[in-house]
Amino acid sequence: MSWTPRRVILALLVIASPSMALANHSWGGYHWARTSNPFTLKTGDNVDSNWQSYFDAALSDWTSSSVLNLTAVTGTSNKHCSAVAGTIQVCNGRYGNNGWLGLASISITGGTHITQGTVKVNDTYFDTATYNNPNERRHVMCQEIGHTFGLDHQSTDGSSQDTCMDYFSNTGANAGSTLSTRPNAHDYDELVTIYTHLDSSTTVKSAAVMPPAMEDLVLDGPGQWGREIERSEDGSTSTFELDFGHGNKILTFVNWADGGQADVEDRSGPRDPAK
After folding, report:
1. pLDDT at residue 20 is higher than 80
2. Within a domain: residue 171?
């Protein structure tokens, strides 16, 4: 089935009260392992000319953090945005009328350590008048990249906290607004909190080791996300998990569009391959 989007951003999301901004917005303790700060994340550039300026802006904005730097490298994945260990791969493509506007996925080993991340923006929707504006493109690109560091949303009620890590929509009457298109001070403070603790090893290298079953997976839709492990009361958000055991998993968090209130069996597709 397909869904018609109202506002669909896939994100790393802790389900919170929709009327409150989060006091902090670290998610699950997930972080890149590293032995010193600031650390540098290689970010694969797989985007076309319609997205290049927004990719470049997001990297510049997040590199303003005192604890991490992003450096663009030549992308090595195809449209499906295959993950590359030790990197974030950022892609755009016409992924179809499948209910999501932007998508971020992270692979975890050891229970909390991020080993690779992917970001996808869906041109099936961004090529429409509703979403095809510079502020919405910048908001979504900034937010999805931010999730790959272990950041959650600051707010989920649709109000603007003037950060790309909120649910404000730069569409319709707000299409001309530049609110919520960049990180704010609280995002940078939260990154310092997340990354104050140092590790004895690093996953910020292409040599990061993962189980073979976690490599080269296509995560374009519900059938590839594993099982739904959590859903908000109103059915607008879901959390999916591919659990490979021994602290190894891939996490996908989704905001569903109007009309996407499918049963969990329709949404989740196959159960975990490890179960």
Report:
1. no
2. yes
